[in-house]
Amino acid sequence: MRDFPPVTRAYTERGADEPDTRSPLRFLWWMVRANGVLFWVGLLVALIWMVPQTLGPWIVGRAIDTGIVAGDSAKTMQWILLLAVVTVFGAASGIAFHTVIVREWLIALYGTTKLVTRKALQLGHVLTRRTPTGEVLSVSGSDGDQFGALMEVTTRALSQLAAYLVVAGIVLTTSVRMGLLVLVSAPLLVLLGAPLLRPMQRWQGVERARNSELTSMATDIVGGLRILRGIGGEQTFGGNYDTQSQRVRESGVAAGRWLAAVESVGVLLSGSFVVALMWLGTREVAQGELTVGELVSFLGYGLFLIQPMRTFVEFAQKWTRSVVSARKAVAVLSQRPPWVHPAEPASLPSHAPIVDGASGATIEPGRLTMVVSAVPDDCAALADRLGRYLHSEEGALVSDEIPEELKGRAALRERSARARAREEQARRDDERARQPWGVTVGGVDLASVELDEVRAGILVSDTAPQIFAGTLRDAVDPLHRLSREQAEQALHTAAAEDVFDALPGGWQGELEERGRGLSGGQRQRLVLMRALAADPEVLVLVEPTSAVDAHTEARIAERLGAHRGGRTTVVMTASPLLLHHADEVILLEDGVATTRGRHADLLAGSAAYRSVVVRGTEGTPTLAERVEPVEPAEPVREGSR
């Protein structure tokens, strides 16, 4: 089992073999080569599997001519025993062939999944800026299955092509006319079936595009289900999903019609071939040019050749589907990360001031700094710059799916236009990533530091974090580096004791995917707890308490500074409860830092700051002033683990 699960090192290890994404055909050939020796072993086993099937009709014919017709019982028994041996050998080789061929299929399927996973790890946030989620999931799932099916049918088709040529040679040595009929039948089948492949490919592409859109809709609905229930939008979005589901069904039915037409041509021609072969055979028997045994052999070969002919049709179908899938896979896997390794990497200074050139904001080391703006996107953009993330652009996603009403040259032009748009987007990302980043730590620009070191030293916890299924301990401390006391301290600071209590089993309690069993506030505090547990040198939190109630927010505000004492913490927020405990507050106006100071001083001296922070009329006490200090909650009891 050394080849399963498939070993994939592409994209995350330097120098590892990567897929050939120059074209869909090159990618499919790379998939064949990725199977390595297994593909050739599968082909060899398939050829061995076909040998008994080519010998069977010949043995039956010889048994009739030399045994039954001649009245020789001994000869008849010899041929019967030989046929039994060949049959047993064929059954054993068939088992081996099926084992190898399924192995090829699974390696291609799960190999594709691992490729997409590693590409997602390599690109990180860049992938979601460029490609819709549904397309990525479709490549990982359904397209990977298409590649596995292609590996299986390719091996089978090559082995049966060899058997087809062997049978044609045997028939030619006996009857030239019948041999020519055998040789012509397969090309004629392909020639007549080819015109049906193009509309079948088009509808399969439409089905694939609609299914990708349906997957994206399902992802969005699941992610925002709680919000939809809150605003009463379940029926609206459910209706949209139902409509799109029906469109997928309609395109699948249309593709199925053309598939049925291709299958019908295969059945019609293969049946006609057997009829023609038997007509010629009986004529030659009547003329004394063939024996009865040879006629029976020809009948057996005629029935045998139906299988290769049907396989050739199946290969054409799966090849068509795989080319469509390969085009989508190339669109995802061909994307390159914009980051480059610095020629002379510098180390990230510790406990040093951080200066953002775009906004002019300076973050002093070891302090709890909060950033306020009337435009939340300005704060989010600053957080992205501090963590060296490319800021998301409105409408930046470029789908590989083209409008289904486009056909022929119009479809080619649209596909080319989208390819150029993706290239232009990648060029802009490359240009931005290769320039000085504009954020310095202790005078060192982040572009001069290895990206891995930046990620390790500066952690950005944004407003759309992910929670994966698993235990609470894995969600908070995936690397299992924390002691119980450290984990409980992070739990206490995030005021997430209710999350702990809500899970049977405590730290070993199971979380559902995306934390579906938790409320919005509980999920947000779980994410905050995870960020605190990572304990980075610089922690950037974007609206960490937007979904929690005022009393819980007050507890978090009181505990956050003490927990992060001596380390740099930046919080993007307009909450008076948090701002009241900040060491320093920076106000952004039009993305530029214009004012800085303590919360109370800014409330008294800055009208712009008050307009963003104060809720209500002038003179009304702020929420921070109205909420009384909250006593620290009791730490988690040892008996409740």
Automatic annotation (TrEMBL):
<feature type="transmembrane region" description="Helical">
    <location>
        <begin position="27"/>
        <end position="49"/>
    </location>
</feature>
<feature type="domain" description="ABC transporter">
    <location>
        <begin position="340"/>
        <end position="615"/>
    </location>
</feature>
<dbReference type="InterPro" id="IPR003439">
    <property type="entry name" value="ABC_transporter-like_ATP-bd"/>
</dbReference>
<dbReference type="Pfam" id="PF00005">
    <property type="entry name" value="ABC_tran"/>
</dbReference>
<feature type="domain" description="ABC transmembrane type-1">
    <location>
        <begin position="40"/>
        <end position="321"/>
    </location>
</feature>
<feature type="transmembrane region" description="Helical">
    <location>
        <begin position="79"/>
        <end position="101"/>
    </location>
</feature>
<dbReference type="InterPro" id="IPR039421">
    <property type="entry name" value="Type_1_exporter"/>
</dbReference>
<protein>
    <submittedName>
        <fullName>ABC-type multidrug transport system fused ATPase/permease subunit</fullName>
    </submittedName>
</protein>
<dbReference type="GO" id="GO:0005886">
    <property type="term" value="C:plasma membrane"/>
</dbReference>
<keyword id="KW-0812">Transmembrane</keyword>
<dbReference type="GO" id="GO:0005524">
    <property type="term" value="F:ATP binding"/>
</dbReference>
<dbReference type="GO" id="GO:0016887">
    <property type="term" value="F:ATP hydrolysis activity"/>
</dbReference>
<keyword id="KW-1133">Transmembrane helix</keyword>
<feature type="transmembrane region" description="Helical">
    <location>
        <begin position="161"/>
        <end position="194"/>
    </location>
</feature>
<dbReference type="InterPro" id="IPR011527">
    <property type="entry name" value="ABC1_TM_dom"/>
</dbReference>
<dbReference type="GO" id="GO:0015421">
    <property type="term" value="F:ABC-type oligopeptide transporter activity"/>
</dbReference>
<dbReference type="InterPro" id="IPR036640">
    <property type="entry name" value="ABC1_TM_sf"/>
</dbReference>
<dbReference type="InterPro" id="IPR027417">
    <property type="entry name" value="P-loop_NTPase"/>
</dbReference>
<keyword id="KW-0472">Membrane</keyword>
<dbReference type="Pfam" id="PF00664">
    <property type="entry name" value="ABC_membrane"/>
</dbReference>
